[in-house]
Each structure stands twice: as structure tokens, then as C-alpha cells.
Amino acid sequence: MLEDRTHWFDAEWWQREIAAAISIEDDVLCNLRITLAHYQLSELLRQLIGNEAGANFHTWAVWGSKKAGETIRQEDTRRLQLLTILVTAIPGLALIAFGVSPARASILSLVLIGFGLLLAIVPTVWLRRVLNRTKRQILAGNIIVLEDIGNVSARFAQALHDRRLADDGAWERFAATLRPGRTEAGGQALLSRAFLCYHRARHESDIDKKHEHMFLGNCYAILHEHIRLQPYIHAAMPGPFRRLITARLLSFYLGHESLQVRADVPAGQLEPFPDTLKELDNPELIAFLEGMEGWDRTPNRLKDSHAEDWGELQDRMNFIVDLFRTRHLSPEISARPFTDAQEADLRAGRLPTGPF
pLDDT tens-digit profile of 183-214? Predict the structure, then answer.
């Protein structure tokens, strides 16, 4: 519980904690520490805003970071690597074996052996280079998300955790720490809107309005981050293969629930959306989803909520906004990503044992 963790409301403590996590040289350990930091920040905001408020940005970021970890460890591409070997290496080795047959003329043998080597080695080496580049880009994005919004969340918590300060310009002082302007130009205007929504949700007694504020805040925050991540996603996904990768390789899980981005977002529990988010009343939220530049292609429906090209921001956001809306109150997304023993290992700078 946060009652015995008062240092979590210290933005300078979080700055050191985040800096320590993102500076770890071991890629796998770095990702796991980032995942743990997101979980702790999620719990921090949950306690600040209220347990009944539902998911916040860091709640979702835990599972985004866990998915990044699969790619960093190259667990989600093992089938692709095996397929590459079967399709290219085995025929290549067969050509080499055929070329060294005594019945072949020497020049023909050399040609066959050469083609066999190319077929057996080059595609596998190329795939390895692509996967290593993808791993670097994914980790870089993983670091950026925590460093950027993690420190903002820490300052927000420090500024507003004491309710007595709420009417004493605390919000204005916090908002002044955010850079004005568009995300593309280095600004944090979207983050300012996100945390204003969280601030409003914290003081809202109507549960429907509280959930709409939280949902909108999450949408603003994820839009800001995905604009920042756009070049990293493009670099991680070779252009000609983006649709194939989206269709075949992009799956992730929320707790025990497995999801495929190529498929429409499944309904949550028995209904498409939670009761509090079935009918939206917040004009700003409706404009975000349904306006001229709305991010939901099929408002209030899950049909066509899937993504066809994860490299396209509009396609990603179309999937994400429905995912956020359907799972806003899901207990799966609030699950702990690690056991006590695994957390202890991470704190000690060790890779934890068991599945993670």
C-alpha cells in the first residue's frame, strides 16, 4: 500500500528511479525495470485519483512494456526465424550437397555450392539484422515513454496528493511545468489535457463522468506517446512488410487475456463497453473520438476496430481507443506483472526467475 511509501510522492525520487531503470545496459533487465516502474506509477495514480476511477495511462503502459519485452527478447519472432530456416536454409544445404557430388563438373559444382550458400545463409543473416534493429528501436521507444510521461506523472502526484493544496494553485503550478505546443514540435499540450482530465476525475463524484474523464485522459496520453513513437515504429517495421507483420506477428495480452490487433477488439465481459462508458456525454471526449479528426472509425461499435497497418498512427489509434474503452474497468489490466520474488530480483539488479 502507498501509506508506507511516502517517497512515491517525491518527484525527485522518481526522477532518480526512472533514470536508474532506463540506464541499465542489459536490454532485458532494462525493459523489466521499466515495466515495474509503470506498474508502480499506475498504483500511485490509482491511489491519488481513486480506486474506482479505473485504468490510467500507466496501467496500460505495463502491458505495452511487457509486449515490448517479448520483442526485445525476440520471443515473438521465433516461429518466423524457424520458418526462414526451413524455407531457405534447408534447400540451400541441399544445393550445396548436390554441388559437391563427384558426378558434377567442377564449375557447375562451384555454382551450385555458391547458390546454396547464398540461399542458406544470406536470408537468415538479413533476418537477424532486421530483428536486432527492431529490438533496438522497441527498447528506445520503451525508454522514451517512461522517461517522458513517468516524470510528468510523478510531478502531478507530488503537486496534488495533498487535497488542501488543490485550491491553492497546485494544478496551475504543475501545468506550468509542461511545455506548450504540439507533440511533433516537442510540446506537451496533449499531456496537459490528459492530466487535466485526471485532475477533474479526481474531484468528480459522478462515476459516469469520472470514467469519461479518465478514458479521455488516457486517450490524450496515448496519442501523445504514439506521435513520439512514430519514427521508432516505422524503423522497427520494414515498410513493405508492415501489413504482414500486423496480420501475423502483432499479438499481446492483458493479464490472462490474449488479443490480436488484426482482429476487432472483442467485447468486454458480457457487453461491448462498461455501463459507465456505453453512452458518452463529455463533449470533448465525443469530439476526440467522432469529430472531423476523430480517432474512432466506427464510433460506439467494435466492428472494424482492428488494425491493418500498425505503422499508421490512425490505424493504431482506431484499435487503441476501443481497447481502452472496453477494458477500462477490467481486473485483468490491473494485475501485477511480477511476483514479490521477481520484484525483489529486479530491485537487486538481477534477472528474475520464472516466466515474465
Answer: 999 999 999 999 999 999 999 999 999 999 99
